[in-house]
Write a structure and sequence with these properties.
The complex is a heterodimer.
Chain A lengths: L1 E2 L2 E2 H8 L2 H10 L6 H8 L3 H13 L3 E3 L8 E3 L1 H40 L1
Antiparallel strand pairs in A: 1-2, 3-4
Chain B lengths: L4 E5 L3 E8 L3 H9 L1 H7 L7 E7 L6 E7 L5 E12 L3 E9 L7 E10 L2 E9 L11 H8 L23 H6 L3
The chains are: A mainly alpha, B alpha+beta.
Chain lengths: 116, 175
């Protein structure tokens, strides 16, 4: 599914990693270079670049050219993707808990059976 | 059907609540017994949990492995920090996708409520503003007094640890 610059499949996969979500949160505060991003994350610049590459491919982050620098910024699709990702989490949890309802009913039945 | 709620608190906490038609003891067992966990913590349809290890004691290990039967899979490892049968579980966990994600800290409580149980899960993530996973000690300090949250995080059996930009956070940063 591709809407505008946002590749939803790639976006969800990109957001599965909390480090990348943290990078998005950092970029939400404003444009930043790889060097600037690497500092608070206590990660090497190549490691940050790798995460940024995933985020860029997913359409969540864009870069521009400023002399020799390549500052990154949060694409407006970035926030939208976060919201959708949250919706996906909600759905996964709801699926689990609905399944748990069934298991709890089975456990209760089993207990009742043992008491007889 | 009981409705689940999922909300954020402060900058970083994700709180999930859900009512179940069973006593707290049953909920506690379903969250700590590996054979029971294997039956429900599966995420989307089509996934199974071939490996389920849970040692419900302080310091006890957690390891869940998921597979979708099409060659895809991932796993989670963790440790229990505190257990109060049958009312409270505190544990830490991380996903391996296969890259290891920072630690997620999760407190799950079970309260008798009417004919059943109200489950509340509070999830904290590494500090999203710095990306630094918080140390266990720091997390305990932050957590203990008020659970007044400066972290957020979550647990998603489908393989997606959560962090969200909370409304409060977005408003503060005007995005």
């Amino acid at each position: 599914m591709n809407r505008g610059g946002l590749n939803l499949d790639a976006a969800f996969s990109a957001l599965a990693d909390p480090t990348r979500r943290a990078i998005l949160a950092q970029l939400a505060q404003g444009e930043a270079t790889v060097m600037h991003l690497a500092k608070p994350f206590e990660m090497t610049q190549p490691a940050i670049s790798q995460h940024l590459k995933v985020l860029e491919r997913a359409g969540l982050v864009t870069r521009r050219r400023d002399g020799t620098k390549r500052p990154r910024r949060l694409a407006k699709e970035g926030l939208e993707a976060m919201d959708q990702w949250l919706a996906m989490l909600r759905k996964a949890l709801e699926t689990n808990y609905n399944r748990l309802d069934g298991l709890l009913a089975d456990m209760q039945q089993h207990n009742a059976g043992e008491e007889q | 059907m009981s409705k689940m709620t999922l909300r954020t608190e402060g900058d970083t906490l994700v709180i999930v609540t859900r009512h179940f038609a069973a006593p707290p003891e049953a909920l506690y067992r379903a969250h700590t017994n590996p054979a029971l966990i294997q039956k429900w913590m599966l995420g989307p349809e089509g996934w199974t949990m071939p490996v389920s290890i849970s040692e419900p004691k302080p310091g006890g290990k957690i390891r869940y492995e998921w597979a979708n039967g099409k060659g895809q899979g991932f796993y989670l490892t963790g440790e229990y920090l505190e257990l109060e049968p049958y009312s409270r579980i505190v544990h830490v966990e991380r996903m391996h996708l296969p890259d290891q994600t920072p630690d997620n800290h999760i407190e799950t409580t079970f309260e008798a409520n009417g004919t059943g149980t109200l489950m509340t899960m509070r999830m904290t993530l590494p500090n999203a503003e710095t990306g630094r996973p918080c140390s266990q000690a720091a997390w305990k300090r932050a957590w203990k007094p008020a659970t007044g949250g400066w972290k957020r995080c979550s647990k998603t059996p489908c393989g997606a640890p959560t962090a969200v930009l909370s409304r409060a956070w977005r408003e503060r940063h005007k995005i």
